Amino acid sequence: MTSTILVNSNPTTLTVQLFTDRVLITITQLPAFGTILTSSITTSQASSKDTYNINILLGRRDDDIIPIFVRQIMEKASIFDGGLKEGRNAIFMIGLKEEGKGREAFVEISNEVLRVYHELMLKY
Fold first, then answer.
1. CA 20 to 30 Å from 14, out of 25, 43, 70, 120?
2. Where is the signal peptide (predicted)?
3. What is the pLDDT of residue 100?
C-alpha cells in the first residue's frame, strides 16, 4: 500500500508491503531508495524486554538519525498492534532530503507509516 504526503514542502512517498516473514517499508523524497536497513526485534526470555536490532545494509552510515528513526517506527509498530514482534523483521529503504529530517518531519512520517501499516494489518 502506498501513500504520499507533503512534509516540509517535500512530497514524501511511503510504501508498506507485508510478506510472511518481513515487512518492507520505503520512505523517500528522492528519486532513489536511499539507505537500506534491516531491523528485527529480539525478546529477552529473562526480562521479557524487547531489543531492537538495526543494521545498515547499503547507503549512508554517517547519518545517525536514520537508525533512530527506524527504531522508533519499529517500537511504535510493535506496541501498536503486536504485528512487529520477534520473528517478523522489517526492511527499510529511506531516502530523505536534509530538510526532511527534522523532528516534526519524523513524527509526521512515522504517523503515516503506522497508519498505512495498521490499515494493511487489518486486511490480513
1. 43
2. none
3. 73
Please give the pLDDT value at position 27.
94
Q: What does R_g of the chain's alpha carbons equal in angstroms?
A: 14
pLDDT for 47: 78
Instruction: Look up residue 51 and give its three cell numbers.
Output: 531489543
Please name the residue that has the C-alpha cell 528513526: 69
CATH topology (fold) of 2-123? Ribosomal Protein S5; domain 2 (3.30.230)
The residues spanned by each domain of the chain are 2-123
Question: pTM to 2 decimals?
Answer: 0.86
Question: Tens digit of pLDDT for each residue in 66-110?
Answer: 898 899 888 887 765 555 555 568 999 999 988 778 888 999 999
Which grid cell is 39?
A: 531491523
